[in-house]
Design a protein that fits this description.
The protein is an alpha/beta fold. The protein is built from 9 helices and 10 strands. The strands form 2 sheets. Strands 1, 2, 3, 4, 5, 6, 9 and 10 form an 8-stranded mixed beta sheet that branches. The protein has a two-stranded antiparallel sheet with strand order 7-8. Strand 4, helix 5 and strand 5 form a beta-alpha-beta unit. Helix 2 crosses helix 6 and helix 4 packs parallel to helix 5.
Length: 234
């Protein structure tokens, strides 16, 4: 499974995997916009360890403690504007070889987290941690159940991929098919990028005039179908 992490880190993007999943007819979880990486150049990929935090720092510590190398700790905490991870948890993540964090909530020590090289996607930052929240606002978090992350449900063991464009979630049973499709798409995109660099007009490569003519006759003409027929992808 680590090969998928390495392939994503070295060659692929969330955009490419999302396109590949749709072409394969595979269900893809996609949180709505709002979760952004602290470092736009960072990438994360790995199976999810999930936490419904309820402002409970102990549950986050438990998830990090139980996570295996290359896991992504996925934290849902939308109940208060407090930071659920910071530099100490980030340092422990580095020590344990974790792939990163997705926090549907806030974090702190952002400069230190970036310097540590810990990939983090979150809603934003706040200097106050959950230990300072009044007792009435704290619950007992749950580790290992399904969590809702900005509209996408993540179950433990599902794979999370993140980069500057956002996050996508895939079931482990679909990874091989998605990556096979992504490999084909990547070859096509690299070939087309080379053609454009050599002077080929993008509209000509996509036979755009032919499609526009087809669509004028039939407004329901599908551009994806057209691209497939001419052996292109975008």
């Amino acid at each position: 499974m680590s090969d998928y992490s390495n392939l994503f880190g070295e060659r692929y993007s969330t955009s490419l995997l999302a396109d590949a999943a749709y072409r394969a007819g595979v269900e893809v979880g996609m949180p709505t916009p709002g979760l952004r990486p602290l470092d736009a150049h960072s990438k994360l990929a790995g199976p999810a360890v999930t936490v419904e935090a309820e402002n409970d720092l102990v549950s986050v510590l438990e998830a990090v403690h139980r996570a295996a190398p290359n896991d992504v700790v996925v934290i849902a905490n939308r109940t208060a504007d407090v930071a659920m991870i910071g530099d100490l948890i980030g340092a422990e993540a580095v020590r344990r070889g974790l792939a990163g964090f997705v926090v549907d909530g806030l974090v702190r020590d952002t400069v230190e987290l970036i310097d540590l090289g810990v990939p983090v996607h979150c809603r934003g930052s706040c200097p106050v941690g959950p230990l300072k929240v009044p007792a009435a606002m704290k619950g007992i978090g749950v580790v290992g159940g399904p969590v809702l992350i900005n509209g996408a449900t993540v179950f433990p063991g599902m794979w999370v991929f993140g980069d500057a464009d956002g996050l996508i979630i895939l079931k482990v049973d679909n990874l091989e098919e998605v990556f096979d499709n992504a490999a084909v798409a990547l070859r096509r995109e690299e070939s087309l990028a080379g053609e454009i660099a050599s002077g080929t007009v993008l509209g000509d490569a996509f036979e755009l005039d032919a499609f526009l003519s087809k669509r004028s006759d039939d407004p329901h003409s599908d551009f994806n179908t057209h691209l497939t027929e001419i052996g292109r992808a975008i």
